[in-house]
Structure formats: C-alpha cells, structure tokens
Amino acid sequence: MALAHVASSTSRSNLLRPISAIVSPNLRRQLSTDDTRTLTIETSVPFTSHQCESPSRSVDTTPSELLSFFRDMATMRRMEIAADSLYKAKLIRGFCHLYDGQEAVAVGMESAITKKDSIITAYRDHCTFLGRGGTLLQVFSELMGRIDGCSKGKGGSMHFYKKDSGFYGGHGIVGAQVPLGCGLAFAQKYKKDGTVTFALYGDGAANQGQLFEALNISALWDLPAILVCENNHYGMGTAEWRAAKSPAYYKRGDYVPGLKVDGMDALAVKQACKFAKEHALKNGPIILEMDTYRYHGHSMSDPGSTYRTRDEISGVRQERDPIERVRKLILSHDLATEKELKDTEKEVRKLVDDAIAQAKESPMPEPHELFTNVYAKGYGVEAFGADRKEVRAVLP
Ligand SMILES: Cc1ncc(C[n+]2csc(CCOP(=O)(O)OP(=O)(O)O)c2C)c(N)n1
Ligand SMILES: [Mg+2]
Description:
Residues 299-318 are annotated as: Disordered. The protein is 42% helix and 12% strand.
C-alpha cells in the first residue's frame, strides 16, 4: 500500500467521523478476505469472581474486530501523546489527565455494548469519548477551548459529553459520577428499555462513601448498573495499598457480585462487559475491576515518577501493553504484516496532526456562550447596554 495514498485520503470528513468508521486501505484489503471468520482466543489470565460465576476465558472475535482494536487503540495512544505536547506548548490550559496505557478498557467495553447503553466516567475521559463516536476534531477543539469542541470549548479536558450516544461525561469531582450513573440506570429500569449504564471510577474513588450508598440502592432496586473500577493502582500519587484496607475492589461490593479482569487485554474486557450487561439486566448491579495502568502521571502537573519506579513503568509497557498484545495476535494469526500495522500507525498520526491543525483554526467561543448550558432557559446572567457593561441576573 502506498503511503501517499493514505496521506491524501485524510480529509476533514474523516476527522469528523468516529474512529471505527475509518478503515484504512491496507486493513480493508485484509478484511475483504477473512472478516467473517470466527477466531477464538484465550484471555491472558483467568477472571476472578466474587459472588458469581466467571465467564469463559475463550473469547470469540473476528479479524475485523482485532484490526479495529489495533487501529482504535493506536489512535487513542497517539491522541494522548499529542495532547501532552499541546499542553507543554501551553495550547491546552487547566487540568488534563491522560489515558495512555488504559486504552483496552475503552475499546473492549465499546465492543460489548451499544450506543443506547450509557457510560459515565471521571476526568480521564478523552478516550472514552472517542470510543463513543466522538471525533478527533471535537477532542482537540475542546482541549484548546475552541467552539468546535464537544462542549463548545467551555468544558475542557474533564468535561467531554456525547449525549446522542449515551456518554454523560466527564466529571471532576472524584466518585461523584457513580451515583449519577446509578441514577441513569434507575431511568433505564423505569423505561424498561433493556439498556444498562457503565459507571467508571478509579481505585482512589473506590474508597468513597457515596459509592457504597449508590451501590446499596442499586442492589436494593436491582438497577442495571455496572460499576467499573479502573484500577490503575494509584490515586494522585498514593499507591492503592496505602489508601485501601482491601484493594480487592471487585469484592468491595460485599453483597454485590464482582469480577476481576485483565484491563490490559481488550478481549478480556469485552468478555467481562458482555457478561456484566447480561447479569445486570437480569439481576442488578455488578462490579468489574479492571486491572490496568496509566503511563503518564496522574495529571499534567505530575511527572508520575516520584511514587513509582521507572522500571515498574517500563516493565508494564514491555509485558502488558494493550496495543502490543493485539499487534502480536494480529501477526500470529497472519491478519496483517508488520509493515501494514506500522503504516496504520503512520496514518493515525496524520489524522491526529490534521485534527490538531483544524482545531487550531476553530475560533474561541463568543462571550455570550459563557452563560448557555449553565442555567435552565430563561435564567442566568445577561450582559446588555451599548457597552455591554450592564448585567441582569435571573436566578431560579
Ligand atoms: C471529592 C474530590 N476529592 C479530591 C479530589 C482531587 N483528586 C482528583 S483525582 C484524585 C485521585 C483519584 O484517583 P483514582 O480514583 O484512582 O483515579 P485515577 O486518577 O487514577 O484515574 C484526587 C484525590 C477531587 N477531584 N474530588
Ligand atoms: Mg487510580
């Protein structure tokens, strides 16, 4: 495949499309021959369960799915690395938490559910948004405070939303998204629409009281709530064992079943999420503890190397990296060549660069945008008068 062809195919319309809808020519060549074949692949490690059976370690997949996992995770990785550079160049300001290392959770979860199911997460939300069908242009525009961002540039890194595909944010208050997620599950049960909510939180958040309150009511009312603890083993810099008497987060729901999953294995995540959705619709809440890792520090102000060793980080990269795992599977099943995968990575890099260039062209929001989507219609603050210096406030 000629690279030039790939480069010229990168257009604005591609940037506006969800990642999974953009299939590169080299991957398409592979898919045309064997995308209907079922491959059965064993998860890296067995699941460990609490108060429930474990799903099978044998996961059904297809060449098409593995190739899209590779491409989607490579896009996420590249996007986060680019966000790091933009932050250092001061084009992104404020808080910024990166997800590189944890990509398998986002793609595995998406492959098991539909856009009618809901997802809600904390501030480490860029890749979850992309997985829900958000575009690179929306991501970079939002990060740089531009009008083309998913929250019109007013939310920034921690406040990505995509309600039309069931993504309810993007929340900065640790743990607060979990009761909100259980509220979404309450609405789903009330409407009897057969959908579920995945509420994601970290190992640090797992010790919060509001989590147990939300879990209690969800279990009492059999709500279709799946609590996903993304255990990257650190809070802002506090190792899990320094913050939690029991870091076995999948067991922490006591009367609520739980499953421990290798969160660096996209197929294991897919299997667990499928299992959890079926369980939740039948029996109510379940906890999935995803054993994962973040390569970056907690946020951009944390170098991430004072409370853990460089050896630990490079060891995870070498042994458990989610993208490398899928690369190996693709190569061992002869679904693409090393060169084709490298070309895909180059193509992804170009998509990311193009999205950044276009996001830089996007204007800042107008001052009047300051008050939209903050108060209910008819309320809020309005500036008026010839010099716009008079302000009228109408509060509920
Ligand atoms: C209620 C509340 N307390 C403290 C903070 C500051 N804070 C932000 S992130 C964080 C650590 C959370 O760690 P974890 O839940 O493991 O998520 P991770 O960042 O590892 O994804 C803390 C203490 C906050 N945002 N909200
Ligand atoms: Mg954590």
